[in-house]
Amino acid sequence: MNLSSLSLLRFFFALWLVSAEAHGAVQYQPAPEGSRLEIVNHEQVKNVILLIGDGMSVATVSAARFRGAGIHGRLHMDRMPVAGFMQTCSADRLITDSAAASTALASGFKTNNSIIGRTPQQENVVTIMEAAQARGMSAGLVATSAITHATPAGFAAHAFARSDQSEIALWLLKNRIDVLLGGGLAFFFPDKGKRTDERNLLQEAAEVGYEVLTQREQLLQSSSPRLLGLFADDGMTTHAPEPTLAEMTSRALAALNKNSQGFMLMVEGSQIDWANHRNDLEDAIEQTLAFDSAVREALDFAQSDGSTLVVVTADHETGGMALVGGGPDASTLEAAWTTKGHTAGTVPLYAYGPGALHFSGFHDNTELPVLMARLLKIENFPRQQRSVAD
Questions:
Q1: Are 368 and 358 in contact (CB under 8 A)?
Q2: How many Å apart are CA 352 and CA 311, to the nearest integer?
Q3: pLDDT digits (tens, 9 = 90+) for 118-163
Q4: What does R_g of the chain's alpha carbons equal in angstroms?
Q5: CA 289 to chain centre
Q6: How far apart are alpha carbons 113 and 88 in whole angstroms?
Q7: Which residues are part of the catalytic machinery?
Q8: Do 219 and 264 meet the contact criterion of CB atoms below 8 Å apart?
Q9: Does the structure show a pLDDT above 50 at 13?
Q10: C-alpha to C-alpha distance for 83 and 75, rounded to whole angstroms
Q11: Which of 135, 170, 219, 298 has minimal CB crowding within 10 Å?
């Protein structure tokens, strides 16, 4: 190839990169060959990172692996040395919703579908994030949905119904969650029409020390230990010019790690669920690969830190996906679907870092926060907090 041809090739490659970025294409980098992580033998846990792929099944992970890493490749979650399965049913249904599932994962209590941070009898329950804060740790929530959506809400709010997102926004600030990154601007700002009390929570947050962000560039340049970043009115588009889930995860870790007492971070790949609800294989793959890029950020941090436990799972399965066809290179991968709703199927569970071996095998979703509390040496957990009447 002569110099002019090479220059032309470089020109068109650069043009493609600009076009891909403009259209929000995810440039996924699979795990390198031979990068499986080793078992960490000690159990001295300072930080916990819980990553939840909403609606993510074993089939969803498989489809993402085949397309993103190749038939013989590996996702970053595949590098984690401990794996198992988790049961997801709620207190009143075999098939859970995200509110009840998040409450179980956060508190160790089963509740009815739609309830956030409360028992079926409407008793508030202490979440693992609240318990961590009580002992001086920092707390963070990252999602591609509204940050007031069911899964992040379950870790820091107490509401009769997941639909009460304006109330949930108040809880997030009341509980002083140090890092809040995702969508949901409309539930914090009266001009967007979704608040009924006319309170400007962005202003209130700034007054108590949050750095308030609405643009990707602001996030990448941030240095504050307390961040409120809202990058869409409701759910994010997950495309440029918004920050990626991996970027939000990286910035959250940088902010939370300023606390010498440690931190707990929950990261949700919210829109895997939404793609599976639509039975959209291509978007389910894209969202899972974006989630796995966030997993990479968590694992890189944990490897460097040495005292961070990383747990990856799903709150429930959505869509009933089965992989039924595809060529030898997965370019013609096909899926069959059994529903556009949730299912009662068990979901995958992965762990890395100190104490990871406790997460091997089969678990109920209520067991995970109890294990985390034990490793963090948090006593008197799980427990109810107080009655709503109080």
A1: no
A2: 7
A3: 999 999 999 999 999 999 999 999 999 999 999 999 999 999 999 9
A4: 20
A5: 13
A6: 12
A7: 98
A8: no
A9: no
A10: 14
A11: 135
pLDDT of residue 358: 98
Helices (H), the chain: 3-22, 58-69, 98-107, 128-134, 150-153, 165-174, 201-207, 216-220, 245-256, 271-277, 281-305, 367-375
What letter represents residue 260's amino acid? S
Structure tokens at 64: 């993402």
Q: How far is CA 69 from CA 21, 23, 31, 76, 285, in A?
A: 20, 22, 8, 10, 11
At 330 the pLDDT is 81
% of the chain beyond a pLDDT of 70 = 92
**How far, in Å, CA of 369 to CA of 107, rounded?**
6
DSSP 238: S
What backbone phi and psi angles, to 5 degrees, belong to 165?
A: -70, -30
Residue 48 identity (one-letter amino acid): V
pLDDT tens digit sequence for 223-263: 999 999 999 999 999 999 999 999 999 999 999 999 999 99
Please enumerate in sequence order all residues whose Cβ is within 8 A of that of 33, keeping only pairs 6 or more positions apart, or say none.
73, 74
Residues 148 and 168 sit within 8 Å (Cβ to Cβ): yes
Q: Are 294 and 270 in contact (CB under 8 A)?
A: no
How far apart are alpha carbons 305 and 263 in whole angstroms? 12
What is the spatial distance between Cα 290 and Cα 282, in angstroms, rounded to a whole number?
Answer: 12
Task: Copy the structure tokens of residue 231.
Answer: 């990058």
Token pair for residue 180? 């809040």
Task: Work out the average pLDDT over 276-285.
Answer: 98
Beta-bridge partners for 111: none
Question: Whole-prediction pTM value?
Answer: 0.93
Kindly state the tokens that stand for 208: 């108590």
Distance CA 119, CA 344 (A): 21
